[in-house]
TrEMBL record:
This is Homoisocitrate dehydrogenase. It comes from the Eukaryota. GO terms for cellular component: mitochondrion. The keyword NAD applies. It holds the Pfam family Iso_dh. Residues 9-345 form the Isopropylmalate dehydrogenase-like domain. GO terms for biological process: isocitrate metabolic process; lysine biosynthetic process; tricarboxylic acid cycle. Belongs to the isocitrate and isopropylmalate dehydrogenases family. The lineage of its organism: Eukaryota, Fungi, Dikarya, Basidiomycota, Agaricomycotina. InterPro entries: IsoCit/isopropylmalate_DH_CS (IPR019818), IsoPropMal-DH-like_dom (IPR024084). Keywords: Magnesium, Metal-binding, NAD, Oxidoreductase. SUPFAM superfamilies: Isocitrate/Isopropylmalate dehydrogenase-like.
């Protein structure tokens, strides 16, 4: 599909806090690619907690409609209210549902290894994004011995298969071509057993297509242990929602600032880039947010759409700026402003 587009309609949802500072940075980076990508048409869209406090709506219908008419999107960050607010639910969670973005894909790579150096961490966490404990079916029952709380954990063959396919597809495009299935089927033999078995069966469903991809599996506890001790053993890690959530944050911690780590929320028909960090209220409005996670999210989004070469150009420009170490935001020990970092990256693009 990549070659057939004459223009690329990109929804921009900066939302809250530093989202409003880093999404414009990603936009400038895409614009700098020129004719390497189909002519981008940006559509600025509203959402977020701040919007909710002003208007009572966190995710306006116009935003949802415009996204449905776009090819892809970039989402900034939403502030999470410190306590439950009546009538509010997170727009990013809503969008994942509405657009059926069933995979959260997060590449984690060591900070700017030189071209000769091998990065010590170079992996992708592929997290199932729609089920597991996140179906949020909880109930509380009073008993003779006090209250009892239960939660439902849903694992379906369909969701496990499509997340497995996403993992194999990503692994196939990488050098190592290695998938590790993360589970805990020694304890949860039915739910995690189904996840494990279904992901394992993916290559059989696509005769020959994934023959060159190696499959391993690991219990989630030992996977986290090994992630910290020998992260280089991993290439693509695929996990149900909750384990994936924990592993992807742990993996991000391996490479330093949250301001560096990108992600995409991906489905069969839509992809939405989203920096891993939040709205960072402590630094919002100061013009010092690190724009790199957002620019890398834009690159990842383009890669998912089939524009690998322009995505490489963005990543390379970012790596050079980090490696040179002259123009960095304070989270990386520098003194530069967001726009100065953007300008340095644009110059290299
Ligand atoms: P939220 O509720 O929106 O997640 P938070 O308080 O958890 O907000 P995060 O955005 O998750 O904040 O960030 C955690 C810490 O990392 C903060 O101190 C923040 O300043 C820092 N940080 C996050 N993203 C960036 C960035 N892009 N550039 C610089 N610092 C960042
Ligand atoms: Mg946070």
């Amino acid at each position: 599909a990549a070659a057939s587009r004459s223009s690329l309609k990109i929804g921009l949802v900066p939302a809250d806090g530093i989202g409003r500072e880093v999404i414009p940075a990603a936009r400038q980076a895409i614009e700098a690619l020129g004719s390497d990508v189909p002519k981008p048409e940006f559509v600025e869209l509203l959402a977020g907690f701040e919007l909710f406090t002003r208007t009572g709506t966190a995710l306006p219908e116009e935003t949802v409609q415009a996204l449905k008419e776009s090819d892809c999107a970039l989402f900034g960050a939403v502030s999470s209210p410190s306590r439950r607010v009546t009538g509010y639910s997170s727009p990013i969670v809503g969008l994942r549902k509405i657009l059926d973005l069933y995979a959260n894909v997060r590449p984690v790579i060591s900070v700017a290894p030189t071209p000769e150096e091998k990065p010590s961490v170079d992996l992708i966490v592929v997290r199932e994004n729609t089920e597991c404990l996140y179906v949020k079916q909880e109930e509380m029952t009073p008993t003779e011995n006090g209250r009892e709380a239960r939660a439902t954990r849903l694992i379906t063959e369909r969701a496990s298969r499509r997340i497995g396919e996403m993992a194999f597809e990503l692994a196939k495009a990488r050098q190592r071509k290695h998938v590790t299935i993360i589970h805990k089927s020694n304890v949860l033999s039915i739910t995690d057993g189904l996840f494990r078995e279904t992901v394992r069966s993916v290559p059989r469903l696509h005769e020959g297509k994934y023959d060159d991809v190696e499959i391993a599996e690991q219990l989630v506890d030992s996977a986290v242990y090994r992630l910290f001790r020998e992260p280089h053993i991993y290439d693509v890690m695929v996990a149900p929602n909750l384990y994936g959530d924990i592993i992807s944050d742990a993996a991000a911690a391996l490479v330093g600032s949250l301001g560096l780590v990108p992600s995409v929320n991906a489905g069969d028909n839509f992809v939405m880039g989203e920096p891993v960090h939040g709205s960072a209220p402590d630094i919002a409005g100061q013009g010092i947010a690190n724009p790199i996670a957002s620019i890398r999210s834009a690159a990842l989004m383009l890669r998912h759409l089939g524009y690998g070469a322009p995505a490489d150009r963005l990543d390379k420009a970012v790596d050079e700026v980090i490696r040179e170490g002259q123009v960095l935001t304070p989270d990386l020990g520098g003194k530069s402003k967001t726009q100065e970092v953007v300008d340095a990256i644009l110059k290299r693009i």
